[in-house]
Amino acid sequence: MLHRTAQDTVHPPHPRATTTAGAPAAGTRTRVPAPTRVAGLRRPATKRALALAALAAVVVPVLAACSDPGASAAAGPSTAARNGVTYNTSPQQDRVRTQKDAAAAAKVPAAVSQDGKLTVATSAGSIPLSFHATDDKTPVGSELDIAQLVADKLGLELDVKVTSWESWPLKTQSGEVETVFSNVGINGERVKLFDFSSYRAAYMGFEAKKDSTLEIKGSDDISGKKISVGSGTNQEKILLAWNKELEAKGKAPAQLEYYANEADTILALSSGRTDLNLGPYPSAVYRANTRNDLKVVGKVNAGWPATTLVAAVAKRGNGLADAVTEALNSSIKDGSYAKVLARWGLSEEALPDSETITAENYGSTPGAKK
Questions:
Q1: pTM, to two decimals
Q2: Strand 194-201 vs strand 309-315: parallel, antiparallel, or unpaired?
Q3: 117: exposed, middle or buried (C-beta count within 10 Å: 0-12, 13-18, 19+)?
């Protein structure tokens, strides 16, 4: 089930891969199952809505080049996986907690700390990152667990706002939310508008049916294949670039299939309507270890051909990113960060430290290179 928030949301035009003439790019098909509708900008009814609409023209480009996890929670309260992880999908999380760090808390801007809350946006879309629990309303997952550690370190109450993937840039820019924990990758467009605090490696995973002989290492391996992918995502950007490589070699490009949510995407893959799916690596690993019909057949850095990291987002220049970075490093040091990643089977994506990444240092940091 794809969970979207409609209230106070401004919907940017749905991004589609196009040629310069506006026609669909080679090797792409669009599949949007009924009754899903692709909405354009709604008529703003308030001054606030007008401001958000104005921001849309600026921040919509930053949505490209990252994943939009859209999925439903597991059917039961917990799932014992073959990788040894028991995924708790119930509302009762018993999260890993930590203690306030006075030095980190002292760096929080007054505009953020004055209400005693850290307001966090998440898209609640994909196990194990951020998703709705079995009550279909409580947001849970590794992203929220890490956000909880940061709130604890800063001495603030965690206030989670579930928002659509398309809306987090607008809501961060407008101040409706103060930070974002939603599997957001760092890229050159985003650093023009936001500051980042890195906390996890960023990879995409290729999935195929269990009996597939495919092994994906580069563009040659996807020639002529049907691949499901999210529109306006980092994985789409990678596949379009790989298709250009194939066309330059005179080879058939991959045929990209677009679905409205993760449930439809995985159904298409498991039923054989597509050959591959490219999505967030942690979600691919989760399915490979909790289902009997799918496996991971490839892994690529989310910033390909460069490298990138998953990071918390703050409005550019407001000072919050430095506080979040210090809170993350304090959590890494006391071991609570490692416990959260282990809890969700993400230990291989752990970072040795968090860095604040801005427009000024982007490209010079080890994990976020142009």
A1: 0.78
A2: antiparallel
A3: middle
